[in-house]
Specification:
This protein has a single domain (6-116), classed as 2-Layer Sandwich (YaeB-like fold). 36% of the residues lie in helices and 25% in strands. The N and C termini lie far apart (53 Å). It has a five-stranded mixed β-sheet with strand order 1-5-4-3-2. It contains three helices and five strands. Helix 1 crosses helix 2. With 121 residues, the chain is α+β, with helices and mostly antiparallel strands.
Length: 121
Amino acid sequence: MKPPKTIRVILQGQARKEYELLSKVVDEQRKKGKTNSEEMQLLKSIDKKVAILKYNPAYGQSVSKELIPKTLDVDNLFRIELTHYWRMLYTIRTNEVEIVSFILYLVDHHTYNKLFGYRDR
């Protein structure tokens, strides 16, 4: 019997930068005594979804191959809705020993629409 595959979640590129910026903003807000800002809610939402991905990499909604922006250069793409109409976009890569979810983007609704070529209303 094969041992279970290791599952990892990695924030890269834009997602990593956005997460780091959001973490700094939340740290500053906490220092000022805030306890429940939109940024805090968004960070909590991201952390919760990352924790879920560590147990279930296919948790998100699969994006149809024909809708995946060519600029992403990935074979598969998943979308997870976050609080305040933000989205998390990630791809899954697997081999004999592990499954890795690479989080590519953390974007607001407007940026998501722009990335996919949708019109904002």
